C-alpha cells in the first residue's frame, strides 16, 4: 500500500519531467499524508475546480488524496480509499468508472513503508536511483455534495509486492515506467483487462530503501531531515 509519500522537488522539475507547459507552484513536502492536497497529472478529462497547465493534452492540478466516488452520500470516508487494489479495479463500484475514464499520474520521489517485525519503530524510505521523480498510477473522481460543493479526489493503485518490496510488505504502490505514461492517460482505452495488463507489464520495481527516523510517523513533522538515514541495530541484509 502507500500511506505516506514524498515530493521534495520544485514545480520547475515537475514541469520538465512531464513535459508540461506550466505547473502550479507548490512547496516541497517530505511527509504527504491522506486527505491532503496532492499534485496529479491528468489526460484529456478536464478538472472544473483547478487551474490546469496543458501540453499535449496533459494537465496538472491538485486533488484531495482519498477517493470520493461520484455516488457517495458524503465525503467522510475518503481516507478509507487512499489506495485501490489492482485486482478489483474493474469490478469494485468505488473504482470501476474511474478506472475506465479518469486515470492520472501522481508525481513523487519517495514513499514510506513500515515493517515493525524487522526494523522496530523505524519506517523505511523507498526511492529510485538518485531519488529521481517517478509517478504512481492513480485514479481520480469528481464528487458533488447535496449543497453543491465539488471535491475532486484521487487514489493510488497498489498491487502484490515485487522485488525488494516483497521482503518488507505484501503490497506495493504501482510506479509506472515512463514509457507507459501516455497510454495510461489515453482516455480512449477503457477495456479493464487491457488496462490491468498495462499496469502489470509496466510496473517499476527497481527500488532502493533505507531506514529513517520515526519522526515521520507524525504528520505534523514535515522537513528535509526526515529523509536522512537512521542507524538501527539490525544488520540491513537486503542492501
TrEMBL record:
It is an enzyme of class 3 (hydrolase). Keywords: Covalent protein-DNA linkage, DNA damage, DNA-binding, Hydrolase, Lyase, Protease. Its EC number is 3.4.-.-. GO terms for biological process: protein-DNA covalent cross-linking repair; proteolysis. GO terms for molecular function: lyase activity; peptidase activity; single-stranded DNA binding. Belongs to the SOS response-associated peptidase family. This is Abasic site processing protein. It comes from Cyanobacterium aponinum (strain PCC 10605).
